[in-house]
What we know:
With 467 residues, the protein is of the alpha/beta class. It is built from 15 helices and 13 strands. Helix 13 packs antiparallel against helix 14.
Amino acid sequence: xxxxxxxxxxxxxxxxxxxxxxxxxxxxxxxxxxxxxxxxxxxxxxxxxxxxxxxxxxxxxxxxxxxxxxxxxxxxxxxxxxxxxxxxxxxxxxxxxxxxxxxxxxxxxxxxxxxxxxxxxxxxxxxxxxxxxxxxxxxxxxxxxxxxxxxxxxxxxxxxxxxxxxxxxxxxxxxxxxxxxxxxxxxxxxxxxxxxxxxxxxxxxxxxxxxxxxxxxxxxxxxxxxxxxxxxxxxxxxxxxxxxxxxxxxxxxxxxxxxxxxxxxxxxxxxxxxxxxxxxxxxxxxxxxxxxxxxxxxxxxxxxxxxxxxxxxxxxxxxxxxxxxxxxxxxxxxxxxxxxxxxxxxxxxxxxxxxxxxxxxxxxxxxxxxxxxxxxxxxxxxxxxxxxxxxxxxxxxxxxxxxxxxxxxxxxxxxxxxxxxxxxxxxxxxxxxxxxxxxxxxxxxxxxxxxxxxxxxxxxxxxxxxx
Length: 467
């Protein structure tokens, strides 16, 4: 395969910054093992080692005669490594100083520091993985839940490529049939418009299922932002602690205790959720509280789900009504907190009053809880998932598409195929073929077959340096 980059040798630390028991340094590139021969020595062996692929060697790293560290080296030959190049990994002690000295030594002997994501980029360019699988590498690194890690692993092992290849094959078959008719008019072939449009409709249905799954899939990849809002002293911090199952937020009966937001990460129904406990929404002359209120509103505007609390004992106040009008277009969970303080008839009346204000839209849930007495979390979790996914928890299927870039390209392919069907109905076969080729190009961009260099650079620039 033709190299699309300079054949220089790159190196980087592949483990997290900070002192640790072990540090791993990666080095990859043509003739990279020659560098290892200059700096690595094995005990009681006079001759330089002959490195075999997939072997581990114990020895020491030297800078001339100065011992740097005892290490374990793993070696890989050309075509048999992660990058597809000759490469090695040095397992050294996890001192940042030691790691820095070894990296300097590698660079002194002909390597250079890798750019972010350059190891994965080389793996892609050398045909070791398709682009969607390469992108899944960082999804695994950033996974915050078991489900997110599972989906990323599936993508790393080629699940997206298999789905896209299936769509491409079916689309190519339609294009081939149309182009035969266009290229050989003297054969007196009859265009099979109905079959072609039916085939494209089938592709559109399959593609649309992938696009629809992105609405859920993106939450696995990026996580969910959830903001707790409400007036002061309605129980936001108590609920925050209840959801986290720890006493992170200070709770008191004094109004305005929370003046700035607190945030924490929690797993709800398998989704990584960043939850924000915000300052109470109320009119005040206190400049600090005013700033807290401003930040609360700003957080709510960027939240995937807004959780609005009101106190059952206070009922629905004019301020609550005003706030709910603002947030009812969001994905909204309205919690009647402190529900243990009212009898069932009054709670029903309050819930009906809320229903009149909020309506019966699918993006709104109204539930009763008592955060103080730790009652109602199961109902909250189910409402959260129903609201997030638009379906019952038990009906969920595992999403394939979690990457926004993939979703955009699938959507563009969808539009091109719809346009192709329109042109087929008009018997404008040349234009239909053009639209189908456009769709194929969009599919190809997902797996990296037709992806421009500037897009590649943008994708891999988000990776860790050691990846």
